[in-house]
Amino acid sequence: MEKKNLYMGMGMGLAACGLGAMLLRPRKSRKMKSAMGKALRTMSEVADSVSDAMGW
Q1: For residues 41 and 33, what is the distance between their CA atoms, to the nearest angstrom?
Q2: H or E segment at 15?
Q3: What per-residue confidence (pLDDT) applies to 36?
Q4: What tens digit of pLDDT does each residue of 1-48 get?
Q5: What pLDDT is recorded for position 31?
Q6: What's the start-to-end Cα distance of the chain, in Å?
């Protein structure tokens, strides 16, 4: 009986920790992703124009 109680307690603890981690995780920021995408796209265009100007 002691092992059953131990396993039950471990399972409940893992479930509680998992739920807490899910609730406290940071939300994904879509604004950050789109800003990074725009910045990378702009840098790519600048690199292409510099390469074209130098004749590479």
Answers
A1: 12
A2: helix 2-24
A3: 77
A4: 577 788 888 888 888 888 778 778 777 666 666 777 888 888 888 888
A5: 63
A6: 76
The single residue listed with the structure tokens 């789109």 is: 34
CA angle, residues 17, 20, 9, in degrees to nearest 5:
30
- The span from the CA of 13 to the CA of 38, in Å, is 43
- Comparing C-alpha atoms, which of 30, 27, 49 is closest to residue 38? 30
Nearest to 14 by CA among 2, 6, 26: 6
The long-range contacts involving 5-13, CB below 8 angstroms and separated by at least 24 positions, are none
